[in-house]
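Ticket #4471: structure export looks truncated?
Reporter: QA, pipeline team
Priority: medium

Steps to reproduce: submit the single chain below to the structure queue and open the exported record.
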Amino acid sequence: MRWILVPIALLIAGCETTTTSGTAPQPAPVAQTPTRAISAGEANRLLAPVKARVEPVAERECRARTQGRVNCDYAISVDSRPNQPANAYQTLDKSGRPLIVFTSALIAQTRNPDELAFVMGHEAAHHVAGHIGRSQQDAAAGAILGAVLVGLAGGSGEMLDLAMNVGADVGSRSFSKNYELEADALGTVIAHKAGYNPVRGAEFFNRIPDPGDQFLGTHPPNASRMQIVRQTAAKL
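Actual output as written to the record:
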């Protein structure tokens, strides 16, 4: 059905963290300070030691929190395509295996391993919390509601199709901010258990544009995200 096409692009995007849950990931905000360009090889070299420490922790947390209900065998990689915007996202392959993908531009923007670890933990948390499936359900509910409203009003088939598209888009965005904050909290735990400083890692938010508290925005204000990270870290 055509209405499904709108939310799919939103669902695949693990986040705009540069650090939400298809087709292609949404581009993340560009850091406000210029960064040097790095090759995919250098990006992999920078990511490797962080991956070695964070991945096993993320998999343990996943298994413990989902009790075997989902595949917890993460595959973490660098998008080797040139000129990709700064982004990191979580999605699933055809078998349901969780994938976490970083672009070289995102890795180039990070200033220390703590930032990489926090972003990685955040993306891993999206999978643990089931945000892709929950967003799909939100989109489906919105599409059904849109169809019912237009149907009751006696709308045409074209209007029905449009209403389902709009409803799916609104539905997929309805809880997006909450999902991001959930991923920030669990990402903090994962980064901490891997031996990194999540509060220092979340300082990455200070160098990206603040989305503010937009109606139906996909991400919460940066200040809200920092608050969640600090509150969670204080309990660890």
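Status: closed, not a bug. The export was complete when the record was re-opened. Leaving a note from the reviewer for reference: The longest strand covers residues 98-103.
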